[in-house]
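Box 4.2: Ligand-aware structure prediction
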Amino acid sequence: MERPVYKKNDRLEVAITDMGMDGEGIGKVDGFTVFVKDALIGDIVSVKLMKVKKNYAYGKLQEIIRPAASRVEPLCFCASSCGGCQIQSMAYDAQLLFKEQKVKNDLRRIGEFGEDTLGRVFLPIIGMDEPKRYRNKAQYPIGSDREGNLIAGFYAGRTHSIIPNTDCLLGADCNGKILKCILEFAGRYHIPAYDEETRKGLLRHVLIRQGFSTGEVMICLVINGNTIPNAEELTKSLCTLALPTDHPESCFTEWKITSISVSPNTANTNVIMGHTFRVLYGNSYITDKIGDVSFEISPLSFFQVNPIQTEKLYSKALAYAGLTGEETVWDLYCGIGTISLFLAKKAKKVYGVEIVPQAIENAKRNAEINGIGNAEFMVGKAEEVLPEVYREGNTEKIHPDVIVVDPPRKGCDEQCLQTIVSMKPQRVVYVSCDPATLARDLKYLCANGYDLCHVQPVDMFPHTVHVESVCLLVNQNAKAKQHVNVGIDAEEYYRIKNS
Ligand code: SAH
């Protein structure tokens, strides 16, 4: 049959049957694929074709002819224009199912795992009880509207135009009041917002971070210059704000601002923060906890943005590591040592490897404030440090019991995986933020002596398309596997496997 030839501005009715990497709806009309932003699986939509290629086109949503059963009213008024969330208009249960399917599909397609294996190892995704106000960090760009009034908000998807919104519903409930106070102050003293085109103006961004377990709040103003006029008055106004909370995870009734700083950034760049910061009020850091490990967080340091789900993820990683206190553990891609320190309390020795020197400084400091003496941190690429250590041949280091990896989206370098396999740890715990590279790397490990025991997806970022997973792999030659303490789930796995 001759395929109909579509062209720009054509209108089509499309049934959405799938969703892509960025949460865009995907439908087919006579074998011709149409991508539609803001359309959900199950929607029947009318679209106008914008960009037409031979076999596919991008369509602009015109009308939802029949909404998907999972379609709900989004939390935020600006959900479709704001670049932060992609799937707010999907009911949370459906979001979780979508993420589970995404991980499963990649394991099938890229990892070539069969239904048998998936049926045995794949665990239902761990979602949030209250999937909002989960972020402990927000970075609001500051700009001006047409009338010249200062605004704070978020960039519209893929652009730098600011959608005014001082209360993102993923962020903490004190952000709105803090921003309002800063905008009022700046208005009073005619302090202009930074303009990316002219590179003039002072206020670039406001960073707000919270310690969810401590109630501590940090504010850092990123400025195109060195100082803020009348800064004392600003800190006074901020410190007199009453910031009551009904935050879902709070064990306190009021937030307290304990750190206010400025970070000069005069560069013409998309990087938000400057290289340094100067304290205007209080401390240079706030403190938060994951489990019983404390972390000092400065305006410049990395910290997991959803501490509630992070604790659930790391608890799984800890269970999968099956520690008794006698083990040597490597934590590759360790960042500021969050996983390393979480595991160190239950292991004999933990070695952390991370490419960013400043993160390793943070990791060492975090070990110190927690009185953890059995964690050692190294700066370098995992794929270089691990083979070097292996060549050196130090028996304890090269025969770890457990190796944990938590790589960035591109996954592990093959050199790194090769060395892991050569070191023959009894268990490998793989924490992943990208199911596609996870599937690729699991395939490698399973072809080289490891059994996949668990795949546990965790929803760290509700309303976005991102999904994390933590997986357990066990060495096929591990002695008396059924006696290895690999956590309750793994014991269950072996019971089924051996029955
Ligand atoms: N496990 C940490 C951070 C994981 S994010 C936590 O939970 O907080 C991934 C980390 O890998 C980042 O800190 C990044 O800087 C680091 N990284 C990226 N490429 C690397 C490489 N080739 N070798 C070692 N670390 C790397």
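In the box above, the bound molecule is S-adenosyl-L-homocysteine. The pocket of S-adenosyl-L-homocysteine is lined by residues 304, 333-336, 338-339, 353-356, 359, 381-383, 406-408 (CB under 6 Å).
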